[in-house]
Amino acid sequence: MISLSGLIVDACGWVALVDAKINLDIELKSILGQPELILTDAVLIELKKIDEGRKGLLLELLTSRAKIIHSNDSHTDDGLVRLSIETGYPVLTVDRELKRRLISVSCSYVEVTAGRTLRLVD
């Protein structure tokens, strides 16, 4: 069951959202209302590494609006899948393998489409 009160953020999903210049508030409102953004510490580390090589990832915006959760999982995607199972929240991602894993355990995801919009897949 999808809970529409939260959205778990994956690094590649956030990068795709920023690159597509999508207005997060407007696009999310149309599919999820106004969910709380959830960010694992492992994803934040990935985003900081990416940001070192290219600026403009709006990390200050993300960290100011997201609830940051500690993850004990050895692999970032394992933590995202586990968190989605536990909370029922969809994951913002464009990673094909992660999307496949989420669907295989009856979880949902939000993806950035070619038309610069967000789409909920459940």
Q: Just name the CATH architecture.
A: 3-Layer(aba) Sandwich
Structural class: alpha/beta
The CATH homologous superfamily = 5'-nuclease
Mean pLDDT: 92
Strand numbers in spatial order across the main sheet: 3-2-1-4-5-6
Description:
With 122 residues, the protein is α/β, with parallel strands linked by helices. It has one domain: Rossmann fold, CATH 3.40.50. It is built from six helices and six strands. A six-stranded mixed beta sheet has the order 3-2-1-4-5-6, with helices on both faces.
SSE arrangement:
Elements: E1 6-9, H1 11-19, H2 24-32, E2 36-40, H3 41-53, H4 59-65, E3 66-69, H5 76-87, E4 91-92, H6 96-104, E5 109-112, E6 118-121
In short:
The protein is α/β, with parallel strands linked by helices. Helices cover 48% and strands 19% of the residues. The protein has a 6-stranded mixed sheet, sandwiched between helices.
